[in-house]
Amino acid sequence: MKIFTALLFLAALCVCTALAGPAPQPVPLRAGAAASNITPQLGVSINGGMQDSIAATVQDELHARCLVLDDGRTKLAIVVCDSCMIPREVFDAAKARIEKEVGIPVAHQLMSATHTHSAPTSASVFQSDANASYKQFLIGRIVDGVKRAHAQLRPAQIGWGRALEPEQVFNRRWHMKPGVENKNPFGGIDQVRMNPGVKNPDLLKPAGPTDPEIRFITLRGTNGAPLGLLANYSLHYVGGVTGVSADYFGAFADRIQQLLGADRLDPPFVGILSNGTSADINNINWKEGGQPNPGPYGRIRIVADAVAQKVHTAHRDVPFHAHVRLAAKQVELTLKVRKPTAVELATAREIVSRTKTFPRMSTQQEIYARETVQMHEYPDEVRAIVQVLRIGDLAIAAIPCETFVEIGLELKAKSPIKPLFTISLANGYNGYLPTPEQHKLAGYETWRAKSSYLETGASVKITGALLALLEELK
Known about the structure:
Layout: H1 2-20, E1 30-37, E2 45-46, E3 53-54, E4 63-70, E5 75-81, H2 88-102, E6 109-113, H3 132-151, E7 154-164, E8 170-171, E9 173-176, E10 182-183, E11 189-190, E12 192-194, E13 203-206, E14 213-221, E15 226-233, H4 247-259, E16 270-275, E17 281-282, H5 298-315, E18 326-336, H6 342-353, H7 364-376, E19 381-391, E20 394-398, E21 402-403, H8 405-414, E22 420-423, E23 432-433, H9 436-441, H10 458-473
Parallel strand pairs: 5-6, 15-16, 20-22, 21-23
Antiparallel strand pairs: 1-4, 1-7, 2-3, 4-5, 7-14, 8-17, 9-12, 9-13, 10-11, 14-15, 18-19, 19-20
Helix pairs in contact: 2-3, 4-5, 6-7, 8-10
């Protein structure tokens, strides 16, 4: 009887299996890439400094570089724009149109700025005011780029890799020798100094680490032809140009295309370099100096080539995958704003009132007095998006700030999904993001202004929220 019952069970199991059919096969990944030109008309405001400047020439073109990925159930869009910083309203408007016209959910779109200091003013900072017509132009071109990348979707293979380039990154915040004062424009004394001078005999030690890691995602068609590459490096910008320029981010895109033999392909290859956690990192060797100064744009090419060469070497050993799962999650945080006290506001208004070059502020004290008056008008709280994308075994964190390198290193160490890298200036702009410890040291990146205004514990809240999202996607 037991044998008969067992036979009946096996027969029933076979029938159920036959009715269910074969297990569904994973859908091949599809990918598309496009670059949308966002170079402005000459004459627009250029930000990146405490004084405004005007675009009089173009050193190299600016682009919104776009990737779209589709695993058959989930689509992701990643956009990296050659811009200093882009306010949330620009990204929100572009995302809403993309969701409506292409069908990619807003929460599945990651958009960021590279932080080139030679691009049109999209977010008002210091004495540069955003150009309203350029912002509208930027929205349209971002939408166009994603739509074109979406139209290019085709079966693809994806891989990810890692390289190191420690020779181009230096912490720019320094402790000085005892007895050296670091005066700030508010009348106080800081514990550290930003950009303290090359070979300054009063240098003591850097106030933080660096992150030499380059993480990258690479895509190719099923025929093996390169399709696109997204890299991430924690270096602020390089500079040394007199006109509009995408800085080393754009030069990297061009150089990696050359190294991969990806010129004049159909569809065109798109190289992308996103800004990692670089708020306190630049390309100047303060302690030793000795770096070549090959003239305008020369230093940009040196850095871009060094980073691209390292990526190209690591690229040779990257394993590719035809099937990966995609996922995205984001949360909107409420963060407090550091507002001036009544005494600070009164002092600032008095300084502004006696400025001889008004409305143009000349000295640091005058500039930050103007910023203090404007910060009085800011809301007490702001809303900020933090986001995580998962691409196979890799994760990308997105923070809407100029993020200190310590935060990126902490996320890499604590993330339940590895590897991970962080894209800064993503989905909006909320100024510098120092850690509480760096706030205590003070220095330029902490000085209250439109460029630095979040509560001193903002990094703790943002890091915690990102790690929680990563746990959900684990």
